[in-house]
Amino acid sequence: MKIISDSLSISTRGFNDMKDLTGAIEKKLSEHSLKNGIVTVFVQGSTAGVTTIEYESGLVKDFSELMERLVPQHGSYYHDARWGDGNGFSHVRASLLGPSLIVPFKDGRLTLGTWQQIVFVDFDNRSRSRTIILQFMGE
Amino acid sequence: MKIISDSLSISTRGFNDMKDLTGAIEKKLSEHSLKNGIVTVFVQGSTAGVTTIEYESGLVKDFSELMERLVPQHGSYYHDARWGDGNGFSHVRASLLGPSLIVPFKDGRLTLGTWQQIVFVDFDNRSRSRTIILQFMGE
Amino acid sequence: MKIISDSLSISTRGFNDMKDLTGAIEKKLSEHSLKNGIVTVFVQGSTAGVTTIEYESGLVKDFSELMERLVPQHGSYYHDARWGDGNGFSHVRASLLGPSLIVPFKDGRLTLGTWQQIVFVDFDNRSRSRTIILQFMGE
Predict the structure, then answer these.
(1) Do C58 and A70 make contact, defined as CB atoms within 8 angstroms?
(2) pLDDT (tens digit, 9 = 90+) per residue, C34-68?
């Protein structure tokens, strides 16, 4: 049983920018030569989240519009009144979606569906360089 | 320390059909004779999710109505415009709720509250046969 | 590789009362002398949830207002009609946010961002004493 701490570095544009991490995580899994276990995908930071989606341009826009509808960018936020960051909406979206995702793997492959990708969504109000934690546990 | 890859097969009617998985997962846990660890419940597919709820008919309807209110079935979705599947709402609901749930177990029992059940919610717009991944890690 | 079942006991006031668990979890991690692995934070019960947030008073209020907007306390709930508990909104909020969070740790430290705290949110409609499950897996 091994525990392997790894990470991915990506650049994003913020404003719901959604990045498909699936290929990069599969590559890491293959490099670590693990067969069975879980990978934890964890967002280090409070203005981004992770989930899965069928990664195609229509749904990428649909998910972005949902976030804008549920948590409007130009709504009124105590965070902005207090700190002037202007990214209150980013924080609230991130807390709603959540920072952690666990994906099992079996026989060396992630147990995703055919049309299911692991995505990182950057909710911040500017471009960011991001480190995403990957923790593999398995054998 | 063991890693056990298992799964459940269920049939659903779609449209927020909510299934209580608790008994089936407890049965698997007992069969695998594990005492302490975690089970990962993972949805293979992009139109369903997992969470916990007090599984009684009132809340099953309340949760379904929430989903309809936040992500209306007959809203306008780029996914539908592009692919004609008519299940854009299903995908967006699934991404919002999330595909993975981790439940610890201790002394051979899931650490759920008395009125807390593990549920699978099928958001698709048709009946489906579903495979739900269960990955046990423990001893 | 060790599996350590632990827990935290806290008191809350309900109504979206948000508690920062980060310091208490870091203390437990240090006591258990683990270097690398994951901790599962799990809500035992069906009227509270966990996530991460920048824990400052503005965002605490912003998140509370989001919950009230998405799932109004004084909305109409089948749960309340059937059981008279008056906390239908609490259950639905809890299922939406989710009961489990996994945080990796590395070199004895949680892999959180600088402005990212682990929080428990009690959605119930009264004061509660809560047990939060912490399950450490690592070495």
Answers:
(1) no
(2) 999 999 999 999 999 999 999 999 999 999 999 99
Q: What is this structure's pTM?
A: 0.98
Measured CA to CA, the distance from residue C125 to residue C139 in angstroms comes to 40
* Cα A114–chain centre separation: 19
Is residue C96 less than 8 Å (CB to CB) from chain B?
Answer: yes
Chain C within 8 Å of A33 (Cβ-Cβ)?
no
Size of interface A-B (CB pairs under 8 A): 95
Give ipTM to 2 decimals.
Answer: 0.97
Cβ A58–B83 below 8 Å, yes or no?
yes
Chain-centre distance for alpha carbon A24: 13
Å between C108 CA and nearest CA of chain A: 12
Cβ burial of B33 (10 Å; 0-12, 13-18, 19+) is exposed
SS (H, E, C) C50-90: EEEECCCHHHHHHHHHHHHHHCCCCCCCHHHHHHCCCCHHH
Residue A15 DSSP symbol = T
Q: Is C40 on the interface with B (CB under 8 A)?
A: yes
Using an 8 Å Cβ cutoff, are B122 and B47 in contact?
yes
What is the C-alpha to C-alpha distance for residues B28 and B33, in angstroms, rounded to an integer? 9
CATH number 2.60.120.460 is the correct assignment for the domain at A2-138: yes
Residue ranges of domains in chain C: 2-138
- pLDDT confidence of residue C91: 98
Q: What subunits make at least 3 CB pairs under 8 angstroms with B?
A: A, C
Within 10 angstroms of residue B9's Cβ, the number of other Cβ atoms is 9
Residues B91 and A43: their CA atoms lie apart, in Å, by 22
